Amino acid sequence: MSLLHVEGLKIHYGGIQAVRGIDIEVDEGELVCLIGANGAGKSSTLKGIVGLLPHGGQVHYAGASLKGRPTHAIAAAGMALVPEGRGIFARLTVAENLAMGAYLRRDAAAVRADGERIYQTFPRLAERRGQLAGLLSGGEQQMLAIGRALMGRPRLLLLDEPSMGLAPLMVQKIYETIQAVAREGMTILLVEQNAHLALQVSSRGYVMESGAIALAGPSAELAADPQVRAAYLGE
Description:
The protein has helices at about 40-50, 70-75, 95-100, 110-120, 125, 140-150, 170-185, 195-200, 220-225, 225-230; strands spanning about 5-15, 15-25, 30-35, 55-60, 65, 80, 155-160, 185-190, 205-210, 210-220. It has about 240 residues and is α/β, with parallel strands linked by helices. Strand 9 and strand 10 form a beta hairpin. Helix content is about 40%, strand content about 25%.
């Protein structure tokens, strides 16, 4: 059974249909990517899955329907979204942002241990733990957003455009971390405009165009597909 099963997902903005009845499956322990051009409906899909946007269709997580469940209940069930634009709390410190990621947990000793583990993963955050998050660079804010999500010990991690606006060296660091988290068994659904990167790190992928799934399959096959290479890989 898949950990995430999305069937017939539809999302409207007024009279505009942004997501047109798509189906997505993510199995436990998989890293699956959703790629496509800007405006294809990728971010709307993630927001629909976590209950931030009203939607039609069905979303099942760990075998249970999420229909009608509020976003905070979905988070408590073990799903974490790192949003496009990072969504850090600019007026809180790095340490306070990480603490917010663990607000549903009551295992204080384990929370402290997880915080230290995040600092080991991202040494820059350790150096800046007392600094206001709004003063961090874009890459540091992305590290913080991922770290904050991991503090909740999610079962499913949703990443929305983690490379957006970052320098190449920072993108490399972020993606090394994503791969390391995946190797530890984390289930990840990755939304990314950088199709080359996304297909490189994932096992399976979906290509989204104008709110619909145009192609789906193993990432290696999608990377070799002439249509994908022409449209998304610049070849």
